[in-house]
Amino acid sequence: MKGHVYILSFFSFSEYLLLLCLLYSQTPQKKKVVDINLQKRSFMGIQFLIWWGGSWIKNNGSNFNVVLNTMNPIEKINGDGTGIVKWLLDEIFRREKDAERSLMHRFNIATELTERCKDEGELGLIGILVWLRFMACRHLTWNNNFNVKPREISEAQDKFTNLLQKIFLSQSNDRETVRLMMTFVGRGGQGDIGQKIRDEILVLQRNHDCKTGMMEEWHQKLHNNTSPDDVIICEALLNYVKCGFKIDAYWHTLNTNGFTKKKLASYDRPIVSEPHFRTNAKDGLTCDLAMYLKTSKAVHSGADLESAIETCLSSSFRDHNSVTVDYVGGLSLKLQECLKFIKAHIHDENIGPLMEKLLESRIELHPILCTAHGRAKDLLFLDLALASAIRTKMERGLKDLNFAHPPEIMFYITLVLENLCLSMVNNEDLIYCTKDWYRVCESYKTSDGQWALQAKAILDRLQLVLAERSQDYHKKIQPSVQYLGNLLGVEKHAIDSFTEELVRGGLAAVLSKLINCFEPILRKVANLGCWQVISPVEVCGFITSVNELITCQNKVYRKPTVIIASRVTGEEEIPYGVVAVLTSDMPDVLSHVSIRARNDKVCFATCFDQNILRNLQLKEGKAISIQLKSTNLIISDISSSGLSLNSFIPSYIPRGVTFKRKTFRGKYAVSVEDFTAEMVGAKSCNIKFLRGRVPSWIKIPMSVAIPFGAFETVISEAVNKDIANKISHSYKLVQSGDLSKLQAIKEAVLQMSAPSSLTYELKSKMRSSGIPWPGDEGERRWNLAWRAIKKVWASKWNERAFISCRKANINHNDLCMAVLIQEIICADYAFVIHTKNPLSGDVSEIYTEGLGETLVGAYPGRAVSFITKKNNLKSPIVGYPSKLIGLYCKPSIIFRSDSIGEDLENYAGAGLYDSVVMDEEERIVLDYSGNRMIVDKAFQISLLSRIPEAGKIIESLYGSPQDIEGVVKDGVIYVVQARPQI
Fold first, then answer.
1. Which cofactors must be present for this protein to function (predicted)?
2. What are the residue ranges of helices labelled H in 489-630?
3. Alpha helices per DSSP H over 171-259
């Protein structure tokens, strides 16, 4: 046989395998077969070359590679479920030695690995993205003693970018990742595109008699291994010539881009000399170097704007049939005109008209970006270049903007926001923010406080969107960065800052800067100040900074502590020893943590000025005093000796609060007429009290309850004996300090079985009360209801509830839980009323929050808020909504917690326990731009007067301030619960 297979290397594998190598003879149809028996040895794969008929057959200049090991699925490395494609990252590490020989090798390997990981989804592409960025940031070697022709690098780039184009067109959900990948790869091209790098440098040397010194050294580097560095070197030479051959201009350009003499000397073909040209050759050199720069950018800088425009406007830009493209799959006349304008005005100091044309170009380009044709990747590189130009122009123009002139800033925010929408996949939240922003821009009035409040709410929401996307990037990308970076020996700082730098290099970072600069102007117009004080208390304490309040909620501070928290959801328990919580987050004023702060006499406030919070964080461990001045806080440094630590006892420790344990009265279900304080909690009793007492326009839903003692009776049933023992054992561990066992108790409760008597009694009471019985729709529906009931019971062991009882010196074991059952009202809006203003303590004012649908859930953003005088129910809005998500239900049943601990005097037990909807609520991205409550002034005035009127009526029935929850459906007000305001 003429052919031989030369096996170069083996790698470990776990199984006996048979390798079939098919060798073509001179007649292509005739095949030769070689059997290689690996004899049960552990091989991962083999690399080989083929010797045939006196010559070597290679794989595009590299070894053939056959992987024999089974690829492992995505391996999870974090507890929160974020993961990596481990086999891919391991393979990248193994192939890195080969990849660093030249960029040709690297791009060929990237093409191969991208093909192989196409079934791994987004995480596979992220692995390649991380590797490419490590390369682009020079954490990896570009060339190691290997001579490669420029056209070979160009062809390898072309092959890789063609594959990325294919993925971009066929995998719509991965387009954002592919866009990022392409920013780290040049366009490349077949044949003469890469060869021009080699040929044109020879012409330049010949034309200007510069065949020695620095130019010859650069020529040798170009021939040996061209790279994106050559774009910078060419720019440095061009600036050197333009500045009258001043060598400082050459070094300034290089140094600005991170190039040093040491770096230039480190190439396989080192550059150690400085440039020297004939002074009379300035014009010719300027022209030739500019042309050579275009050639270099055409290969290495796919996202370079001028190069991308040049490519797409050139006469060679044709479709696959070689017919000049006019629109379909190509450029419309309008787009061509925009691009020509951009080329002519790219260096204008007035960036406004240029920014508009950049945006118009992207809008015009957007419909054809996803059209399959031969030059789709050139259009994608053009779009990337346009987006990059918008970012850089905006960053450079920020210092010249007049932030005191809102129309100018609104114009630029709109431009950047629209561009961000064009770059993002799954951008529903951004689209809705943009629609709302259009509405506010159109209604702009000078010095209008209500307008400023609306504008600020939209920008608050945008900041939340940007923050969530940044966190999403970090969760998806950083695990691969950590794993691969450690394998490749990348510096720790580069690993830790990888995703942050990736985000900061995008349009989102520019938009965030614009918002941060504009926000103080809006606050001033709206008369908001730097703080929103949620719980007004004057305190002194030592500063401690945390990222999330929830991470320290079970901690005990032995000295008065002021916590600076970046994230507060509204669901947390305030730690023992904390006298103040200051945050940049925006929890609702009527959220559970806000109510508990006021009840516990803890200062709680949101700060809108990041500089103030940063300065406070720098005072870690220092003592400060917090005083109130109108609606703001005055913070001062004090001596730590002024704080008495030995006698420190938080003022909010409840005195004499106890749970009176309830007993089972023999009924598993009771109707609203039979509710008593011995059988159900205050939540249920208040529903009974309100029925028949409120006017007919205030609706009270029908209710049934599972009374106190039902849980204890069910758990004592023989069928639940093992579960009872498990709960008892876990609770002993909790009492000894292991709070992790609270979750084990909750999981055990969910395993309980329902006695038939409970099912029968509950069915009877629900039917007689006009509440749909879930079992009528089948066993599965009853199982959902039973699980919801158990979730309410299990919430007795919520961590924050247990901690709250411990802080209050209450015996948690004595807590009893009834379950209030109501039919869900599929509401348009939700609201919470406090009939005494909780911010000022003014009993003549009603404070209402709502219309945000996720009001008391741990979702970021603010609800609508308004304050009403009881003698004048016209309510100016004091805060517009910025919630991202709304929760909406189909017709269903809600099972509400109704414990003996939720409405005790001097104890903020409300919100510690769970109310559970039988059917999962649907999470909807909210669109406020057409919301009737926001845009219909007459409807707004009517609704915002009737809601507090309902609160005023209910307060008069009880004779004391009330905390009322309700919903609005088709303009009708429903009150679903009321309790004394704490």
1. Mg(2+)
2. 492-496, 498-504, 507-525, 592-599, 610-617
3. 175-182, 192-207, 213-225, 229-242, 247-256
DSSP state of 773: P
d(C-alpha 365, C-alpha 453), whole Å: 35
Contact 822, 683 (CB under 8 A): no
- Mean pLDDT value across the chain: 85
Report the candidate in 680, 679, 703 with the shortest Cα–Cα distance to residue 690. Answer: 703
CA distances (Å), origin 267, targets 97, 184, 217, 221, 883: 17, 21, 10, 7, 54
- Domain span(s) for CATH 3.50.30.10 in the chain: 531-641
Beta bridge pairs of residue 548? 567
What angle is formed at CA 777 by the lines to CA 774 and CA 781, rounded to 5 degrees? 50
Catalytic annotation on 592? yes
Q: How far is CA 629 from CA 56, 65, 351, 692, 839, in A?
A: 85, 73, 43, 45, 13
Closest CA to 899 of 916, 889, 912: 912
- Catalytic-labelled residue, pool 105, 592, 812, 834: 592
List pLDDT tens digits, range 515-530: 988 999 999 999 888 8
Which long-range CB contacts under 8 A does 573-578 form with residues at least 24 apart?
A: 573/800, 573/803, 573/804, 573/807, 573/912, 574/549, 574/600, 574/602, 576/650, 576/807, 577/648, 577/650, 578/541, 578/602, 578/650
Q: Which CATH number fits domain 827-888+926-980: 3.30.1360.30, 3.30.470.20, 3.90.930.50, 3.20.10.10?
A: 3.30.470.20
Q: Where are the alpha helices (DSSP H) in 526-618?
A: 592-599, 610-617
CB 795 within 8 A of CB 801: yes
DSSP of 498-522: HHHHHHHTSHHHHHHHHHHHHHHHH
Specify the amino acid at residue 868: T
> CATH fold of 531-641, please?
Glucose Oxidase; domain 1 (3.50.30)
DSSP state of 838: T
Task: Find residue 603's DSSP bridge partners.
Answer: 580
End-to-end CA distance of the chain: 93
| CB-based contact 895:823 (threshold 8 Å) | no
**What is the band of 319 on the pLDDT scale with cuts at 50, 70, 90?**
very low
Cα–Cα–Cα angle for 354, 359, 361, nearest 5°?
95
For residue 308, CA distances in Å to 267, 311, 505 come to 28, 5, 19
**Lookup: tokens for 758:** 């409970």
CATH 3.30.470.20 residue ranges of the chain are: 827-888+926-980
- Residue 924: strand pairing partners: 886
Statement: the pTM of the whole predicted model exceeds 0.85: no
Helix (H) or strand (E) holding 852: none
Whether residue 334 has pLDDT greater than 50:
yes
Backbone angles phi, psi at 271, to 5 degrees: -110, 110
pLDDT tens digit sequence for 24-42:
333 344 444 455 555 444 5
- How many CA atoms lie within 13 Å of 278's alpha carbon, on the beta-carbon side? 12
Q: Please tell me the least confidently modeled range out of 27-41, 354-368, 374-388, 873-887.
A: 27-41
